[in-house]
Specification:
8 helices; two-stranded antiparallel ribbon
Length: 208
């Protein structure tokens, strides 16, 4: 499988925010040396010293940082905009109503965060990702689609076999000439090998 772009969240079992600027720079250089661009840094949590990870992204010409969505992050958004780094939030254990309210609040305050849509995260809070989460509320904010599938009770499945509306989401974004990122997440490694996940994704595309 040829991989041209990656979003880095963990390296050798360590979350990216624990590695430090020098370590991240070394990793990014190694990826680029082998012809693989780093599309974003992905945080599993929002560190108190958020300036460090934003500056590290800026210093390495990485223009996006993906992180969990919370309230009270105005200082972080202001700093990221100053550095020219786009913040894309993803939801953790909150439904689309709360997600939309957070995003609208930030936009009304003059910030411009985008949203990484992960259907599995909405399925885990018992929403239909396409009908309830995307179509009614969140379509205007999305700049990334995480490709991951889950049942309503939180069990990860192969792509297209759970309740995350993977096929519907890919189809509607293609119809709208989506120019953002489609990302095969690390969660897929819990359902099989990476090559099998890629093959499944290709089969989904070919059936559309």
């Amino acid at each position: 499988v040829g991989i041209d772009n990656v979003s880095i969240d963990m390296i050798q079992g360590k979350p990216i925010h624990t590695i430090g600027p020098a370590g991240i720079t070394s990793i990014v250089k190694d990826f680029r040396k082998h012809g693989c661009e780093v599309a974003s840094l992905r945080l599993l949590m929002v560190p108190s010293d958020f300036e460090t990870i934003i500056e590290t992204a800026c210093d390495n010409d990485i223009h996006r940082v993906v992180m969990p969505l919370y309230g009270g992050l105005e200082r972080m958004l202001e700093f990221s905009e100053l550095k020219g780094v786009q913040v894309s939030f993803f939801n953790v254990s909150i439904n689309s109503d709360m997600t939309t309210n957070f995003l609208l609040d930030y936009h009304e305050k003059g910030y411009a965060p985008s949203f990484t849509f992960n259907g599995a995260n909405f399925a885990r809070v018992y929403e239909r990702p396409y009908q309830q989460s995307y179509r009614q509320k969140l379509h205007r904010f999305i700049d990334q689609l995480d490709l991951e599938d889950s049942t309503f009770d939180g069990q990860l499945t192969a792509l297209g076999e759970g309740n995350s509306d993977v096929k519907e989401m890919i189809s509607i974004l293609r119809c709208h000439s989506f120019t953002g990122n489609l990302v095969l997440t690390g969660g897929n490694l819990n359902t099989g090998k990476l090559i099998d996940c890629v093959k499944k994704f290709v089969r989904i595309l070919r059936k559309m």
